[in-house]
Amino acid sequence: MKTGPGGWSWNGDAERPTFNPSVLIRSGHHADGKHSCWCTYNAEHPNDPAPFKCFACHSFVRDGHIQFLSDCTHALAGQTVPLPPWPVREET
Questions:
Q1: Full strand arrangement of the beta sheet holding 55-62
Q2: Domains of the chain by residue range
Q3: pLDDT at position 11, please?
Q4: Which pLDDT score is estimated for 18?
Q5: What is the sign, positive or negative, of the torsion defined by CA atoms of 47, 28, 79, 83?
Q6: Distance, C-alpha 89 to centroid of its chain
Q7: Mean pLDDT of successive 10-residue segments in the chain (92 residues)?
Q8: Cβ–Cβ contacts within 10 Å for residue 28, how many?
Q9: Is the CB of residue 79 less than 8 Å from the CB of residue 68?
Q10: For 35, how many CA atoms within 13 A lie in the half-sphere containing its CB?
Q11: Beta strand pairing status for 65-68 and 55-62?
């Protein structure tokens, strides 16, 4: 395992990577509850809604797969999916 700043680690495998720790992204009322959220804004502006939504996405990348944890607010919550292929960059 290669360790980076803040305790991040990578198994060194570009084909089937594993990263630690998990990644947690939150927006709107899922973030901190102290600020108004996109749900409220969009309800108050039905004719001009913002293009944003409140959400949470919590995942691990393990052995070349993304493990979406059950606290995600999207359709992939609780599922594991393969990482999409990365383009290969030719060295010059």
A1: 2-3, 9-10, 19-27, 55-62, 65-68, 80-82
A2: 2-82
A3: 93
A4: 95
A5: positive
A6: 24
A7: 73 92 81 69 83 87 97 96 84 69
A8: 22
A9: yes
A10: 9
A11: antiparallel
Q: Give the chain as a 3 state SS string.
A: CEECHHHCEECCCCCCCCEEEEEEEEEHHHCCCCCCCHHHHHHHCCCCCCCCCCEEEEEEEECCEEEECCCCCCCCCCCEEECCCCCCCCCC
Copy the structure tokens of residue 34. 């102290």
Cβ neighbours of 80 (radius 10 Å):
13
Burial of 63 (0-12, 13-18, 19+ CB in 10 A): middle
Classify residue 64 as left (phi > 0), alpha (psi -120 to 50) or beta: left
Tokens of 66: 């993304």
Structure tokens at 82: 């393969």
